[in-house]
Write a structure and sequence with these properties.
By secondary structure, the protein is α/β, with parallel strands linked by helices. It has 2 domains: 55 residues, DNA polymerase, domain 1 (Orthogonal Bundle); 290 residues, Aldolase class I (TIM Barrel, Alpha-Beta Barrel). It is built from 12 helices and 12 strands. The C terminus is likely disordered. The structure holds S-adenosyl-L-homocysteine (SAH). S-adenosyl-L-homocysteine binds next to strand 8 and strand 10.
Length: 357
């Protein structure tokens, strides 16, 4: 088995080169070509000795997610459908000007959390993404948008639950942070979680700490368990407790995401309860009026209901914003990422299978 260079951090790359008879000091150059410049063709890695470039392909593979579809929204949002080495597909989204450039990337193929309003949740978990596949999405998005040399933000808000794929997700953040790579500051990364308490506690001890966003979505356990099933294991009090203990950087706050579902969690009582729950936590609230999809049994509240909810929180001195939904025309908005089928087989192959061919 040839190791995949895209999966290796700098230390692992040094060891892997040495183990296969290459000079260890070439690791930095190689890492730079792959992780900073997005180059995957060994022949283009011109500062490596020719003999090394020739021998690399027999010692290693270098996997990069392949763009199989590129949808552009009228608002500038782009949704890339990416195919992984095993043929599984994921989606990664580019959101311009919010206020800066943002990449929304996936951490799993599908998701095991099964939130009632989220399309990805309908897929179930197909598999975790590897660190190389998580980083690969950033490399591909940065190359596709011409941002390899410019700053951008990363939100782990695509498909999947990052704390359910803890090791690979954190390794990906370390690889992105490496100075020979894209040198992404953890301040530019936001990890969004449904609230897996042991994961939150582990995250609190990480040296490289991303910003934290917690998907709350309800103000009582009864309500929350009905829409966010993991709440049965990690109820509101336990999540908010972990948030209270979470070590925040100066001037930084935890974002609480709250999907507004008409008649379910968008009443004035909900808003008042939410304000109470968050008291004493350095927080900001990100309200997301539901992005509806066929098969999702909830409705998006009217602007009046949203405004009323905002007003109640603002009156209680909470920082609140309503997330503008981007890319809804190309189904790239929150909770609209889903890959049907999700295997490498082409339509023709699938047809052949169906027909018994
Ligand atoms: N698993 C992570 C990332 C999920 S996606 C988490 O739970 O936080 C990022 C956000 O989009 C989450 O807050 C999620 O609840 C929200 N979301 C999912 N489906 C949505 C929908 N249909 N409309 C609006 N927001 C949605």
């Amino acid at each position: 088995m040839r190791p995949d260079l895209a999966e290796l951090d700098l230390g692992e790359l040094e060891a892997a080169l040495e183990a296969r008879g290459f000079e260890r000091f070439h690791a930095r150059q190689l890492y730079r070509w792959i992780q900073k410049r997005g180059v995957t063709d060994f022949e283009r890695m011109t500062d490596l000795p020719r003999s090394m470039r020739e021998r690399l392909p027999s010692a290693f593979v270098l996997n990069t997610p392949q763009v199989v579809a590129d949808h552009r929204s009228l608002d500038g949002t782009r949704k890339l459908m990416l195919e992984l080495a095993d043929g599984r597909r994921i989606e990664a989204v580019f959101i311009p000007d919010t206020p800066s450039m943002t990449f929304c990337i996936s951490t799993q193929v599908g998701c095991a959390m099964a939130c009632g309003f989220c399309l990805t949740g309908k897929m179930g978990l197909v598999r975790h993404l590897t660190a190389g596949e998580i980083v690969g999405q950033v490399r591909v998005l940065a190359a596709a948008t011409g941002l390899l040399e410019s700053p951008f933000n990363i939100v782990l808000m695509g498909m999947g639950e990052p704390l359910h794929n803890y090791e690979h997700t954190m390794k990906a953040l370390r690889m992105l942070h490496a100075e020979q790579g894209l040198a992404v500051s953890p301040r530019r990364v936001t990890l969004s979680t449904v609230g897996i308490v042991p994961g939150l506690e582990r995250l609190a001890r990480e040296p490289l700490m991303p910003n934290l966003a917690v998907s709350l979505h309800a103000t009582t356990d009864e309500q929350r368990s009905a829409v966010v099933p993991p709440n049965r294991k990690y109820p509101l009090a336990a999540i908010l407790d972990a948030c209270r203990r979470f070590p925040l950087r100066k001037r930084s706050r935890i974002t609480f995401e709250y999907v507004l579902l008409e008649g379910v969690n968008d009443t004035p009582e909900d808003a008042r309860r939410l304000a109470k729950l968050l008291s004493g936590i350095k927080s900001k609230v990100n309200l997301i009026p539901l992005n509806p999809s066929p098969g999702i049994p909830y409705r998006r509240p009217s602007d009046e209901r949203v405004d009323r909810f905002v007003q109640i929180l603002a009156d209680r001195h909470l920082t609140v914003m309503v997330r503008k939904s981007r890319g809804r025309d190309i189904r790239a908005a929150c909770g609209q990422l889903i890959v049907e089928g999700g295997t490498k087989k082409s339509a023709a192959q699938q047809m052949a299978l169906l027909m018994g061919g």
